[in-house]
Design goal:
With about 210 residues, the protein is an alpha+beta fold. Helix content is about 25%, strand content about 30%. It has a six-stranded mixed beta sheet with strand order 6-7-8-9-12-13. Bound molecules: zinc ion (ZN). Zinc ion (ZN) binds near residues 56, 58, 131 and 150.
Length: about 210
């Protein structure tokens, strides 16, 4: 699997570009900004973009989705429980001093357990409400890799004080879903360095009982 991670935009959101080496089909997760750079990576690997997955509708994760869709024709997947945050994008842009990306149309709302594919790449959708109501993670079982959005960070968890956030729900999502994954699963958080489930199980202060 081709996997490039670039930190995009002023808030340095980790954007993943995943590609299948055989079919050259790809998916991009959290194109928050810097679409020119994302397109250059796709071109460098000769990848055809098939899916744009947004882990949640905060501007730093969704801000470049429209532009990437316009450039590639790939559909935008985002859980419908974040529709209220999509409607708030102009306000989010104002808060963050970023450009309003315009109205983002969701092409499909991934359900819990659904498989998102591009060529041989298969990511399983894990709905993890808490940071936002519609937050999701994508788990690539064969590669033991979790794209975690802002649900889990190295040594921390997503904030829950923004609209739609719930501390109770994020803890439930982490304990019931994420900590079920194997210890050697690599976690790609929405911001900051990579980690593993095992490290977070041991060290993350928010995950201690
Ligand atoms: Zn967020």
């Amino acid at each position: 699997m081709i996997h490039e991670i670039i930190a995009v935009g002023p808030l340095q959101c980790n954007c993943s570009i995943l590609g299948d080496e055989v079919s050259h089909e790809a998916m991009v997760i959290d194109p928050g900004a810097d679409v020119t750079e994302i397109l250059a990576i796709l071109a460098r690997h000769a990848l055809k973009l098939k899916q744009i997955v947004v882990t949640h509708a905060h501007l730093d994760h969704i801000g470049g989705a429209n532009e990437l869709k316009a450039a590639t024709g790939a559909p935008i997947l985002l859980n419908e429980n974040d529709a209220a945050l999509v409607a708030m994008l102009p306000m989010q842009a104002q808060w963050l001093g970023m450009r309003d990306p315009g109205k983002v149309l969701i092409d499909a709302s991934p359900k819990h357990g659904e498989k998102v594919t591009a060529g041989a790449l298969t990511g399983e959708v894990i709905l993890t409400p808490g940071h936002t109501e519609g937050s999701l993670c994508l788990y690539f079982a064969p590669e033991k890799k979790l794209i975690a959005g802002d649900t889990l960070f190295a040594g921390s968890i997503g904030r829950t004080d923004l609209p739609g956030g719930s501390y109770e729900k994020i803890l439930r999502s982490l304990h019931n879903e994420i900590l079920e994954l194997p210890d050697d699963c690599v976690v790609v958080p929405g911001h900051g360095p990579l980690t593993t489930i095992g490290e977070e199980r041991e060290e993350n202060p928010f995950l201690q009982q």
